[in-house]
């Protein structure tokens, strides 16, 4: 593209799409880790996944995971893999509780996502209803929100991981819980998430989706999953909202 017009037109269209997504949303469902904070900023998720694998090994359960699963740097994937083989077992419950404890321990070193706090407050101020729909423990979410003074913007609508691990996103379960509790139509809501599983869950629930990608790698993954509307910062979202207020 050489001419300025060709470069500005798609940008203007994107701004218009963003404006429409945001102004239509009367209910906003936030994923937690990513759009609101980086939970494991100081407390690496891959180390937690490694710890889970070691913990299983120490119990003679090395064979429970495939070689590929043992290398996965995501604690939720390890949990899900164990659950597929031993759904509802004490082993899964213990592993889940251990992950919750790790998430709680990560809260003090979590990094707030830039513009997330004012965005949450502004959205609340203009009368939208907010909810958190996450694969993390709702206990960790509540604790983080308390450190930022943001609980009242969401409570009681925090829908996180339960013992039913097969209902984690991409299953739309937590979104449907939020919609039901808020008495919201899917089309009047907006999900903000940072992973393909957020997009897939939103799609299954019929909720419009805005992707938040803090880097090119995240954006590529979201685009590959089919997400159309993606921002690299929450700042333009906040701007649209302020102009609308
Ligand atoms: Mg996330």
Per-chain topology:
Layout: H1 4-24, E1 27-30, E2 37-38, H2 45-58, H3 67-71, H4 75-86, H5 90-106, E3 111-112, H6 116-125, E4 129-133, H7 138-148, H8 151-154, E5 158-159, H9 173-182, E6 189-193, H10 196-205, E7 209-212, H11 216-225, E8 230-231, H12 235-244
Parallel strand pairs: 1-4, 1-6, 4-5, 6-7, 7-8
Antiparallel strand pairs: 2-3
The structure holds magnesium ion.
Magnesium ion (MG) binds at residues 31, 33-34, 194-195.
GO molecular function: phosphoglycolate phosphatase activity
EC number: 3.1.3.18
Protein name: Phosphoglycolate phosphatase
In the CATH hierarchy, what is the architecture of the largest domain at level 2?
3-Layer(aba) Sandwich
Q: Which overall shape is indicated by the principal axes computed on the Cα atoms?
A: globular
Mean of pLDDT: 93
Count of discrete alpha- or pi-helical segments spanning 4 or more residues: 12
Total number of strands? 8
Provide the number of structural domains: 2
Bound molecules: magnesium ion
* Biggest sheet character: 6 strands, parallel
User: Low-confidence runs (pLDDT<50, min 5 residues)?
Assistant: none
Structural Rg: 19 Å
CATH topology of the largest domain: Rossmann fold
Distance between the termini: 36 Å
Please state roughly what percent of the residues sit in beta strands, choosing from under 5%, 5-15%, 15-25%, 25-35%, 35-45% or over 45%.
5-15%
From the helix content, strand content and strand pairing, which structural class follows?
Answer: alpha/beta
Fourth-tier CATH superfamily name of the largest domain: HAD superfamily/HAD-like
Keywords: Hydrolase
GO molecular function, one term: phosphoglycolate phosphatase activity
Pfam families: Hydrolase
Protein name: Phosphoglycolate phosphatase
């Amino acid at each position: 593209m050489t001419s300025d017009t060709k470069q500005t037109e798609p940008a203007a269209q994107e701004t218009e799409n963003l404006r429409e997504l945001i102004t239509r949303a009367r209910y906003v469902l936030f994923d937690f880790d990513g759009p609101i904070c980086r939970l494991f900023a100081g407390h690496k998720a891959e180390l937690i996944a490694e710890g889970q694998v070691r913990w299983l090994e120490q119990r003679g359960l090395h064979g429970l995971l495939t070689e590929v699963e043992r290398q996965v740097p995501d604690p939720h994937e390890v949990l899900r893999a164990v659950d597929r083989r031993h759904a509802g077992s004490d082993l899964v419950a213990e592993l889940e509780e251990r992950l919750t404890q790790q998430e709680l321990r990560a809260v003090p070193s979590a990094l707030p996502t830039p513009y997330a706090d004012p965005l949450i407050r502004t959205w609340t101020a203009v009368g939208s209803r907010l909810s958190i729909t996450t694969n993390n423990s709702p206990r960790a979410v509540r604790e983080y929100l308390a450190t930022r003074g943001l609980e009242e913007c969401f409570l009681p609508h925090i829908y996180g991981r339960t013992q039913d691990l097969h209902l984690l996103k991409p299953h739309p379960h937590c979104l449907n819980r939020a919609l039901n509790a808020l008495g919201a139509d899917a089309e009047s809501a907006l999900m903000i998430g940072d992973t393909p599983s957020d997009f897939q869950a939103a799609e299954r629930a019929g909720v419009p989706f805005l992707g938040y990608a803090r880097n090119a790698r995240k954006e590529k993954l979201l685009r590959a999953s089919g997400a159309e509307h993606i921002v690299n910062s929450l700042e333009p979202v906040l701007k649209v909202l302020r102009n609308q207020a």
